[in-house]
Amino acid sequence: MVNDYSIPHKVGHYGCMVDLMSKAGFLRDALELIRSMEVEPNSIIWGALLGGCKLHGNWEIAQVVVNELMVLEPNNSGYYNLVVNM
Q: Its Gene Ontology molecular function terms (predicted)?
């Protein structure tokens, strides 16, 4: 987008991509995208990936995501509930 349209990458753009990739089952690709982001991923982005992990039953990547979310939002019980219900 930057090269073609001079639109800088924003966290919302990444969030949309992670959500779409996660729902489609491309969880490893979504994780790689998060790790390569030019901006710092927030809890919304990690939460989108966690939702995909729940949808597709991928506990391995969910553990990585939960570790990140515990650092970003240790008091948010919603993420803990999502993991418990996996």
A: RNA binding
Alpha helices in the chain (DSSP H): 2-5, 11-23, 27-35, 43-56, 59-72, 77-84
* Residue 86 DSSP class: -
Residue 69 CA to its chain's centroid (Å): 10
Residue with token string 């030019």? 38
Class (C level, CATH) for 2-84: mainly alpha
Rg (CA), the chain: 13
Phi, psi of 24 (to 5 degrees): -80, -5
Q: Where do the structural domains in the chain lie, given as residue ranges?
A: 2-84
pLDDT tens track for 6-41 = 777 888 999 999 999 999 999 999 999 999 998 999
